Amino acid sequence: MNYDERLQHVSVLGAAGKMGSGILLLTAVEMADLSLKPENKGKAFVLNAIDLSDEGLAGLMDYLRAQVLKIAEKKAVWLRSVYADRDHLIENYHIIDQYINDVMRIVRPTTAMEVAYKSSLVFEAVSENKDLKVKLLKQIDQNNPHKTWFFTNTSSVPIHFIEDEAGLKGRVLGFHFYNPPAVQKLVELIVTANTLPEASAFAGNYAKALGKVVVPSNDFAGFIGNGHFMRDALHGIHEALDLAGDRPLTEAIYMMNKISQDFLVRPMGIFQLIDYVGVDVVQFIMKVMNPHLADEDLHSDLLDNMMEQGIIGGQHSSGAQKDGFLKYEKGVPTAVYDVEKKTYVDISQFAASCDEALGKLPESFVPWKNAVKIKDKDTHFGPYFASFKGMDSLGAKLALRYGKRSDAIGRKLVADKVANNEQDVNTVMLTGFFHAYGPINNYFND
């Protein structure tokens, strides 16, 4: 079965979800493009969008149509050449409408799992629950005569557990898209000792067709991205709790969010990132990873406390940020949650005093939006972080400690053979988390 044939009948599990919808969009466009090749004329391409919610599927189809319109507008020139033999397609809007129809007719929204029994490729994007993943994949495999391949989007569950418990014998691999899949360039590719070479090769070709940057990760819980993020988040939480010995925790959270965003030059602070991913998701990933770690404990009582109070962050269906550790107005943090008083405290009440306590940023500071465009990272960030070592401020000390910890986390991922090399760790954090520089560097050395 060649590349085109493998993509003739595909299913996406959890298609109406945040990750599943993006995976479905990318796959639908790729399948539509394949169907337009002369050699595939007359062949049926089917993409099953499987989800529990009829309402969610209806919203999915609206989302899909709107996104395909944008994609079609960007490649109108190519589409005109593809549809050159269709005389009735004259204006650009005729061509664009035709392409939207060609994509949409491939997609079959359904709540019936049984349609996946005919698929030769299944993408799994359900919740981060090993037992659920195993149950669904095993059910499909036992009823599917085609020896289908399964690409799981898990961000933390070791693939070999899914493989063994579902009895898939080399026909499952981790294909971890980053959120949102339609925008994010990074994919972590995780294979097991049994993964079929042809499945791995197909995954590489599929990722290339989507324009993705593929980083291989070895099969350890959390892989590279979450392996770094979870530990990095715990460091930020622990530092905030230490600061809270001298000031309210709300202020400490604000300060560590500022340290991780402004002082370390990241796209968002660590507490804002936790909110973006979801307090519930972060807590769950730590729970998934923790049993597989012999030398550390990935757990936070503060996360547990937030969960008990129903403060979980995440995003609304519109993409707008939900309140978590921070309260947001038009995406901008305006308050910090007080877990003791169970209410938000306006940042304006303490920002000035906290900023004064942290101290000023170095004169060479460049905000992330501009710093991320710097090509020679060492020339800028080496002197920038070196300047912290000559400063006696609280902010400088916290930033240096945070940077050293981030570097150590990255190096341990290589030492533990989660990542093959330091460059892979840096690529994941640069591409998947939009950091301005890789965590493994020499900027924080004494």
Describe the overall structure.
The chain is an alpha/beta fold and 446 residues long. It has two domains: 3-216, Rossmann fold (3-Layer(aba) Sandwich), CATH 3.40.50.720; 225-431, N-(1-d-carboxylethyl)-l-norvaline Dehydrogenase, domain 2. It has 18 helices and eleven strands. The protein has helices spanning 3-6, 18-35, 54-74, 76-82, 92-104, 130-143, 159-166, 197-209, 225-243, 249-263, 270-277, 279-289, 301-308, 351-358, 368-371, 377-388, 394-415, 422-431, and strands spanning 9-13, 46-50, 107-110, 121-124, 149-152, 172-177, 186-190, 213-216, 326-329, 332-338, 343-346. The chain has an eight-stranded mixed beta sheet, sandwiched between helices. A three-stranded antiparallel beta sheet has the order 9-10-11. A hairpin with a 2-residue loop joins β9 and β10 (332-338). α9 (225-243) runs antiparallel to α17 and α12 packs across α13. The longest helix has 22 residues, at 394-415. The chain starts with a helix and ends in a 15-residue tail after the last helix. The model has no long low-confidence stretch (mean pLDDT 95).
